[in-house]
């Protein structure tokens, strides 16, 4: 927690104080010490406080153990940047994770960081990714007339269908 701060010039100190007072009056002031908690420390708190089902917590823990904690465990929450998040996504992509898995894991990180914002630990989430690759589904295959005729002939009209 910041107890004292020194400035080379009095106007700089007055300007800083004015910003702090304005942030307090707007309700946007954050304790500077709050963002010093590491992602690993926050993850334990976040996971224990989340109201998610056990299966979701298990999935989230797997994502964290495999991808989030090795990369972010010792990083202060306030130091996590969108660039770091993008780098993590790039690592997942290079490891050939399916796009849906990457999106799920990013959602896990985003949930933890959004909770950190709501807990007034950081001012804004670094998870602002756009254009995550999407699963490219193959174009649907339609039967030709000949294939449709063969299918119709193969159906036994005497069997119950539903």
Structure explained in plain terms:
The chain has 162 residues and is an all-alpha fold. The protein has a domain at 32-134: DNA polymerase, domain 1 (Orthogonal Bundle), CATH 1.10.150. It is built from six helices and no strands. Helix 2 (39-49) runs antiparallel to helix 3 (54-72). The relative contact order is 0.11. The model has no long low-confidence stretch (mean pLDDT 82).
What's the total helix number? 6
Radius of gyration: 25 Å
Q: Which structural class should the secondary elements be placed in?
A: mainly alpha
CATH class of the domain at 32-134: Mainly Alpha
The share of residues in helices is: 55-70%
Round the mean pLDDT to the nearest integer and report it. Answer: 82
Note the overall shape.
elongated
C-alpha termini separation: 68 Å
Unreliable residue runs = none
CATH-scheme architecture of the domain at 32-134: Orthogonal Bundle
Q: Approximately what portion of the residues adopt beta-strand conformation?
A: under 5%
- Looking at this structure, what is the CATH superfamily of the domain at 32-134? Tyrosine recombinase, N-terminal domain
In total, the number of strands is: 0
Q: What is the third-level CATH name, the topology of the domain at 32-134?
A: DNA polymerase, domain 1
Largest sheet: none
The H/E string reads HHHHHH
Task: Describe the structure concisely.
It is built from six helices and no strands. The protein is mostly helical.
Set out the fold topology.
Layout: H1 10-26, H2 39-49, H3 54-72, H4 82-94, H5 99-118, H6 145-154
List keywords for this structure.
162 residues, DNA polymerase, domain 1, 0% strand, mainly alpha, single chain
